TrEMBL record:
The keyword Oxidoreductase does not apply. One of its GO terms (molecular function) is 5-dehydro-2-deoxygluconokinase activity. This is 5-dehydro-2-deoxygluconokinase. Keywords: Kinase, Transferase. It comes from Microbacterium trichothecenolyticum (Aureobacterium trichothecenolyticum).
Length: 296
């Protein structure tokens, strides 16, 4: 399929985040600790994927719950400035996190606000939009859970790609996402054997599983038995937030251009560098609404 003709509909979180850089993650005891720097910026796994898909020339629309609060206006302005098409659905509040991070890529995410529940009408509108696309990316979220449950119950729609993140092979919430998906992504944070984890995913229905390994690159396993690996592209890391989402987007864009499995992995590794080289999810975010502080 020519990349220019492909349409991707993406459903999931977009948030306004406070990133706090520390020399180490806090110990679970009362103490005082000085931050090395902080930054308010766009966050959310779906926002990250949308930014990088748009960067690769994919016709992508992000379907997200956003409030009319200041955080929602920040999110909308940042995505608009980056050229991302957004279909916003009403929420009482916009998702917001405080991320405690280290230069080594360690992170603790504190959820300060989560979206209110979407109505059946709004979920129906999102489901219809995803069904009309060539690829439906359904990220982990309350709305996403409803959509994949309906798919498992027999609803028709475009092939689902989903990102299981730090899936351990057993988490109950992830199960319907996995079983409804055509392609699944994950990282190796919760496994010592990523090949076995990917095979266990394929045993539940997907045709392809991809696992990112951080600085060691990424691997992929197809239901046919085909295996592929890629090394990480060398980069001076500025920030690790969104690297997995960038990899996902690069891989998906290459797949839409009919690249083989090795080519898709290589494209994902190259796109991850774009995120790793920026203090934002994507350098285009800098052109959005003024950020209130910057990492020093």
């Amino acid at each position: 399929m020519p990349l220019a003709d492909a349409r991707v509909a993406l459903c999931g979180p977009a948030s306004w985040n406070h990133l706090i850089l520390l020399d180490r993650l806090p110990e679970p005891v009362p103490h005082m600790q000085f931050a090395l720097g902080d930054l308010h910026t766009l966050g959310g796994t779906s926002a990250g994927k949308a930014l990088h898909l748009a960067d690769r020339g994919v016709d992508v629309t992000l379907h997200a719950l956003l409030g009319t609060d200041d955080d929602g206006r920040h999110v909308s302005a940042a995505l608009d400035a980056a050229g991302v098409q957004v279909a916003a659905y009403p929420s009482q509040r916009t998702e917001r996190h405080a991320n405690l991070m280290t230069a080594a890529g360690e992170r603790v995410s504190l959820y300060l606000a989560t979206p209110s529940a979407a109505s059946d009408e709004e979920i129906g509108r999102i489901e219809a939009a995803l069904a009309g696309a060539d690829i439906a990316v359904v990220d982990l979220s309350g709305v996403g859970a409803t959509i994949v449950d309906r798919r498992l119950a027999g609803a028709a729609g475009a092939p689902i790609w989903t990102d299981l993140h730090d899936y351990d092979g057993a988490a109950e919430f992830h199960e319907p996402f996995l079983r409804s998906a055509d392609v699944v992504f994950m990282n190796d944070d919760a496994t010592d054997d990523p090949w076995a984890l990917m095979q266990s995913c394929l045993d539940r229905g997907p045709r392809l599983a991809v696992c990112t390994l951080g600085a060691r690159g990424a691997i992929a396993l197809a239901a046919s038995g085909e295996r592929a690996t890629v090394d990480a592209v060398p980069v001076d890391v500025v920030d690790t937030n969104g690297a997995g989402d960038a990899f996902f987007a690069g891989f998906l864009a290459a797949s839409l251009s009919d690249a083989d499995l090795d080519g898709c992995l290589a494209a994902g590794a190259r796109q991850a560098v774009v995120a790793l080289s920026s203090e934002h999810l994507h350098p285009a975010v800098v052109g959005g609404e003024a950020l209130t502080s910057a990492i020093r």
